[in-house]
Q: What sequence folds into this?
C-alpha cells in the first residue's frame, strides 16, 4: 500500500496538468488541489509506516479514497487522459478497472491496518 501511494504521489507531480483535467470544472484551484492531494497521499504513505499512526491513517485513507472516487468517475466520463493531459482517454471503460481497484484499496487498508 505504501509503495502504491508513493507512485500515486509521484503521478500528482509528474502529471499535474493531466490530473488537473480530472478535477470537475466547477472546482477552482485545480493545480493546487492536485499538489495538495499528492502531499496528502505521501502523508498517508508515511503514516502507514508508523504503528502509532497506522489506524488513524488507514481510516483517513479510506475516507480519502471514498471522497476521490467521484473525481475518477468524472474523469472517466470526460475521457481525461492524465498522462497526456488530453480528453481522449479510455472513457468509462476505465471505471471497470478503477472502481474495483478503489474498493480493493479500501478493503486492504481496513484488513491490514484496522482489523
A:
Amino acid at each position: 500500500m505504501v509503495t502504491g501511494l508513493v507512485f500515486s504521489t509521484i503521478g500528482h507531480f509528474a502529471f499535474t496538468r493531466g490530473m488537473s483535467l480530472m478535477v470537475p470544472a466547477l472546482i477552482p484551484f485545480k493545480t493546487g488541489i492536485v499538489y495538495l492531494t499528492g502531499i496528502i497521499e505521501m502523508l498517508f504513505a508515511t503514516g502507514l509506516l508508523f504503528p502509532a499512526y497506522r489506524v488513524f491513517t488507514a481510516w483517513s485513507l479510506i475516507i480519502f479514497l471514498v471522497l476521490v472516487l467521484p473525481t475518477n468517475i468524472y474523469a472517466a466520463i470526460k475521457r481525461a487522459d492524465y498522462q497526456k493531459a488530453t480528453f481522449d482517454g479510455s472513457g468509462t471503460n476505465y471505471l471497470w478497472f478503477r472502481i474495483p481497484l478503489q474498493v480493493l484499496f479500501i478493503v486492504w487498508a481496513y484488513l491490514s491496518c484496522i482489523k
Remarks:
- DSSP finds five helices and no strands in the chain.
- The radius of gyration is 14 Å.
